[in-house]
Design goal:
The complex is a heterodimer of chains A (86) and B (184).
Chain A (H helix, E strand, L loop, with lengths): L1 H6 L3 H12 L5 H13 L1 H20 L6 H18 L1
Chain B lengths: L10 H17 L2 H17 L10 H23 L31 H19 L4 H12 L4 H8 L3 H22 L2
Helix pairs in contact in B: 1-2, 1-3, 2-3, 4-7, 5-7
The chains are: A mainly alpha (86), B mainly alpha (184).
Chain lengths: 86, 184
């Protein structure tokens, strides 16, 4: 019985593992458990599919953002300028 | 007829990522892009009186940014003394494709199409991310776009790892359904 509980996980845990695996942070064991869960859970299969799709388009979009430190620099400079104008 | 209000205090939080992404696809250099975005904010501040409220703030800032990018290319062109037009089919450096026939556009090359699609996709993603609560949006950007480690984000924002994953999960669910409606 205890072995069964180890193999079968809840939907919450499955989604958590799925999110992790999108960033390549899931361990092998977590991925195995996720895939076992996906065998019998239709809702999580759907979630996993959409999640993978989201990862794919995020990678395809080649978005680039300012790092928080760079943003802070701009903010600081901007504040100075703002106070000068007022 | 002032439909749109202007409020420079919130500019950087609201638009810097969008402007930066717009710039980086055009100048390909992080530092230059950062400078251009900053210049845009400054210029916007100076000409705030001219803002008529006909367009949204973002559109207005983008129109300033466009001028800035053009100016940037003008400047580097004149610096190098390359302002004159040169008709040159090959670049001087690579020897491959000396024959002009080899330079014909490859019909299977989809770069332009992909670029167009990417710009639209980027816009769709931006709109969806801006609908997220601020905290979710920030963490999702750090994790997914900037590729920070879980630990780094946790330390920087003072949250636990499980807290982070819950936020990521909510952000991903919301984004997936938003993009489902607007993109897929």
């Amino acid at each position: 019985m205890s072995k069964k509980n180890k193999m079968l996980i809840s939907c919450d845990e499955a989604n958590h593992n799925c999110d992790k695996s999108q960033y390549n942070e899931a361990t092998l064991w977590e991925k195995i458990k996720l895939n076992i869960h996906l065998l019998y859970c239709k809702a999580c299969r759907k979630y996993s599919k959409n999640n993978a799709k989201l990862t794919k388009i995020m990678n395809n979009s080649e978005l680039e953002y300012l790092k928080p430190s760079e943003k802070d620099t701009i903010k600081r400079n901007f504040k100075e300028e703002l106070s000068k104008n007022n | 007829m002032s439909n749109h209000q202007i409020n420079p205090n919130k500019w950087i939080d609201l638009y810097s990522d969008y402007l930066f992404n717009y710039t980086i696809t055009r100048v390909k250099d992080r530092d230059t892009a950062q400078d251009l975005v900053q210049d845009t904010f400054f210029a916007g501040l100076k000409s705030m009186k001219n803002f008529k409220g006909e367009a949204s703030e973002r559109t207005w800032l983008i129109s300033i940014l466009k001028r800035k990018i053009i100016d940037h290319y003008r400047k580097i062109n004149s610096k190098k003394g390359k302002a004159e037009i040169r008709v040159n089919f090959n670049s001087d450096t690579d020897n491959e494709g000396d024959w002009i026939e080899q330079r014909v556009a490859d019909p299977f090359d989809k770069t332009a199409e992909n670029n167009l699609e990417n710009t639209e996709l980027g816009l769709a993603i931006h709109n969806c991310i801006s609908k997220l609560p601020e905290k979710q949006a920030r963490i999702f950007k750090m994790k997914t776009v900037l590729g920070y480690e879980t630990e780094t984000i946790c330390n920087e924002l003072n949250i636990t790892a499980s807290n982070l994953w819950v936020i990521i999960h909510r952000a991903r669910t919301a984004l997936a359904s938003c993009l489902e409606k607007n993109w897929f």
